[in-house]
């Protein structure tokens, strides 16, 4: 049996362009270009992840500070609740920052695949925080529906709601964009968490408007709607994160590998295909059968062709191991 492994390209991000490019990995327009061997792309993507987390943390703390000033002026309990939500969102930067930092550590004998899984665990922590926020928001909404409360200083409350919404939305767009660039599920999930908190901030302003118009039920009803949004985010993000924790991939990934192998005519049969994500790295193992009369050198040449085809069709795939077996009837 011949088993070979590709060089670790460590792209760490999905290029999102068509499969029609050459194996030279010409990225076009210099958007993702890099020179192999000069800088480890995994380190680069982790640095960019840390950079995104750091600046989103700064943006959220600025938002929290401005809202705290308005809270000190108005004394609004609703604004205090929104303030707590935004502080909670900022705190999620801590486990993500740790995960990105650990991803830079080199593999060793105990952790031979590296520490990329720490990012998936950070994603679990983030989803858990969103779920906790949903429970708190739902509980408070039901309480206010049963026991309506009056809000004072509605003008200041509108300003604080606008600050919270705009600040969170900017952070959300920033995190989601960078998360997709480096293929970080955890960072994208954290971006949606920021967006959810922005909607919570917006709901404070809408509920204040409803109270100003004489509808005391507006605040709790909007709160319940936000709870549904939070639960939807938990469901969508949780499916992706827990799928990866269980070494699952999208079925399309396996189909892409099979399609790439089919371009090598010397491959008689594809015995098995396995793939899994470890953080932002996609690993694959492929077992193929070839003519039993071929020499070892000829088998090695076929393996090279298979690896080239897979890397061409899936440039974001970090590492692929190919096993060759004789085709026996």
UniProtKB/TrEMBL annotation:
The chain crosses the membrane at residues 55-77, 83-101, 121-142, 154-176, 196-215. One of its GO terms (cellular component) is membrane. Coiled coil: none annotated. GO terms for molecular function: monoatomic cation transmembrane transporter activity. It is a multi-pass membrane protein. Keywords: Membrane, Transmembrane, Transmembrane helix, Transport. Residues 56-245 form the Cation efflux protein transmembrane domain. Residues 12-25 have a biased composition (Basic residues). Residues 1-39 are annotated as: Disordered. This is Cation-efflux pump. It comes from Moorena producens PAL-8-15-08-1.
